[in-house]
Amino acid sequence: VAMAATRSVMRAVRVFEFGGPEVLKVQSDVLVPVPKENQVLIKVHACGVNPVETYIRSGTYARKPALPYTPGSDVAGVVESVGERVTAFKKGDRVFTLETVSGGYAEYAVAAANRVFPLPDKLDFRQGAAIGVPYFTAYRALFQKGCAKAGESVLVHGASGGVGLAACQIARASGLKVLGTAGTEEGMNVILKNGAHQAFNHRDPNYTERIKACTGPGGVDIIIEMLSNVNLDADLQLLSCAGRVMVVGCRGRIEINPRDTMSKESSIIGVSLFLATEEERHECATAVLDGIEAGWLKPVVGLEYPLEKVANAHEDIICSSGARGKMVLLL
Question: What CATH number did the domain enclosing 26 receive?
């Protein structure tokens, strides 16, 4: 039976209208949610910030939550209480989530028990908040949709952010040849420390030529693409025969020549973690937890913000000059 939470109100971010970062309102009198059947209430210590949360907030994205709402899916913290029929977790357990019901930018969050996972002691809460969406997305892009095989080459286009670093670590551990791009010297160093064999600066006007020189005439087998509206046309030139571009991120339109796919029988494949089946999510979770256990999965935490600075976080994740790890809110 769910116990009453220690407190009845909490601080949380509420969005009452779609728009720019300024619509994120921090309120201190939000009711602490109560876990229903098969749900878990978590005392949140950290919550990841993902680019998709800025798209949803702006109202331009396919998924529009009912207003008002609290953003945030990747929380890490401690179980406060559990709803009926929950046997996998108990009060006091350290956990991280892949989704929340009530929203993660808050001091407490309710999540469905099947979207909650044990957080191993070797990772802190900040790292726990950097696992969910980035690692599950990277795994889905590489294996469930991209059919990556050991020995193939992968270019992680925009490798120094949350999904990019996750892709580098997973691909390297799975026996792929890993190339990554970043926009700063610091970003390039981070990706080389996290599994990339080679790093390229995508602000260098000749960087695609450097990638071609590295891959040779064969080209690259898989591209994990974080900014397809800028890079897709160039990506098609870099692919091998039967190569595939995995579209993980996009912020607008782009013109391409479909003939470029014919000459190589290449594919452009969209990736949406939201469409994963229960079985696919379970497969992702198993791979992620195994990676933590084995030691190669180490989330890199980048910029950290208190809840009060959430609008700055949303501004910076879209506008900053170059990522270096996963952005998190600290509670």
Answer: 3.90.180.10
Q: Is 282 part of any domain?
A: no
How many structural domains comprise the chain? Answer: 2
Same domain, 145 and 265: yes
Q: What is the 3-state secondary structure (H, E, C) of the chain?
A: CCCCCCCCEEEEEEECCCCCHHHEEEEEEEECCCCCCCEEEEEEEEEECCHHHHHHHHCCCCCCCCCCECCCCCEEEEEEEECCCCCCCCCCCEEEECCCCCCCCECEEEEEHHHEEECCCCCCHHHHCCCHHHHHHHHHHHHHHCCCCCCCEEEEECCCCHHHHHHHHHHHHCCCEEEEEECCHHHHHHHHHCCCCEEEECCCCCHHHHHHHHHCCCCEEEEEECCHHHHHHHHHHHEEEEEEEEECCCCCCCCCCCHHHHCCCCEEEECCHHHCCHHHHHHHHHHHHHHHHHCCCCCCEEEEEEHHHHHHHHHHHHHCCCCCCEEEEEC
Q: Is residue 256 situated within a structural domain?
A: yes
Structure tokens at 192: 């080389």
- The pLDDT assigned to 2 comes to 55
**What is the rounded distance in angstroms from the CA atom of residue 111 to the CA atom of residue 197?**
38
Q: Are residues 141 and 268 in the same domain?
A: yes
| Residue 175 belongs to domain with CATH number | 3.40.50.720
Q: Judge whether 286 lies within some domain.
A: no
| Coil vs helix vs strand at 26 | strand
> Whole-model pTM?
0.95
Residues 16 and 42 in one domain: yes
Average pLDDT, the chain: 96
Positive or negative: CA dihedral 37, 38, 40, 46:
negative
174 found inside a domain: yes
Question: What are the counts of helices (DSSP H) followed by strands (DSSP E) for the chain?
Answer: 10, 15
DSSP E strand boundaries for 166-206: 177-182, 198-201
Look at 319 and 30; give whichever has higher pLDDT: 30
Average pLDDT over residues 48-74: 95
Angle CA 144–157–254, to nearest 5: 95
